[in-house]
Amino acid sequence: xxxxxxxxxxxxxxxxxxxxxxFLTILNQTLLLTAVPPIMSELxxxxxxxxxxxxxxxxxxxxxxxxxxxxxxxxxxxxxxxxALLIFAAGTLLGALAPSFSFLLAAxxxxxxxxxxxxxxxxxVMLTIYPPERRGAAMGMTGLVIAFAPAIxxxxxxxxxxxxxxxxxxxxxxxxxxxxxxxxxxxxxxxxAQQEAKVHVPSIILSTLGWGGLLYGFSMVGRDxxxxxxxxxSLLAGSISLALFIRLQLRMDRPLLEFxxxxxxxxxxxxxxxxxxxxxxxxxxxxxxxxxxxxxGFTALESGALMLPGAILNGIMSPISGRIFDRVxxxxxxxxxxxxxxxxxxxxxxxxxxxxxxxxxxxxxxxxTGISMSMMPLMTAGMNxxxxxxxxxxxxxxxxxxxxxxxxxxxxxVSVMSSVAERHGATGSSxxxxxxxxxxxxxxxxxxxxxxxxxxxxxxxKKEKRQAAAGR
Length: 472
Prior knowledge:
- By secondary structure, the chain is mainly α.
- It has three domains: 1-197, Growth Hormone, Chain: A (Up-down Bundle); 199-253; 260-472, MFS general substrate transporter like domains (Growth Hormone, Chain: A), CATH 1.20.1250.20.
- Helix content is 80%, strand content 0%.
- α1 packs antiparallel against α6 (101-129) and α1 packs parallel to α7.
- The protein is globular, with a radius of gyration of 21 Å.
């Protein structure tokens, strides 16, 4: 049987290979967070240059993810996974051997090229091989993997940095990438149906300029501020390009990215809520290390350990939330999850210069429990609202919007934190920074409260689910 046709497969094996690839991708992203200072020292770069190691990865993902809907339709799931792992492994090896910053930056872009394909592909395949009534449990397993990698990433990275070189982070990931690649070659089967799809160059150019411009602009806000000409120009160019891209897609019979998925009310609502939840999570994970390391003076390892219980709890709760979703739907889970997130933000607003570590870890764990109760059920409910032929576009759209939303949320929180800290004290003052961080958590609390109100609008899920199943 040709690779372009769906082949007989063992679902458990397919899921194992996909989850291993996803775990590796996310672990790679979290490992590098604590490695920036030693990289700056060895490669003789400043913080402005170093942040590009994260920004370039984010930009490449953001640009590539919208194209994955086309790639999934055009190529077999087996070929795509193998290609993504090959690209990712090559970038990892180059990163370990990088003699200069520019070389390392190029390696990160190559890594991101592979990672940007893997995550939407995994979600599409999971939604393809499981029927709607079992997708909650399947996506719950995905949530466990997505949560477990960040749980061990910062702590493991901190220990490696303390005992070895930052290059050992790449040396750790590379053999794991090769092992997953070998498993994919021998075990992965094609499970998606291929269609004849042509590359529409204007769409790819506008998509790249649109999403890339927005991501670049928002990622630069925290450093340069909203009034910086480069930030304004990037956001303006991104917005215009994105508007032209959307207009073009709506006129095409076979668009690169299908914006008509937003005609389904439940998909639109769940995507908006998942963006809010993702932005809150990324925002808290940005503010927490700043508080731990710069206000309280903890090490990177201690900062990572502070978030470990919450991340582990998130991993434990994700499959449980998935099974509950399959039985009762996503509305109750999402309402409860956002209620816990709001409560955690109230707790964060009470931290100070001598708050106990147990209190801080507990507040973060409460937030991550709320995230685990809401994120995967939201994503699954949104996908269930779509007819099968729109699922690849739904996963690509959802991932793209969440990435942009996370970038915007982080930029907003960092901007609020920086401006409040500057008004309340001298640069570098721990008390001024604490005021800024508390202001960031106040904004997060307001966003969480808005999200909680929106969850009550999820009442028509079952009706739209039936309409989608009928292929509306």
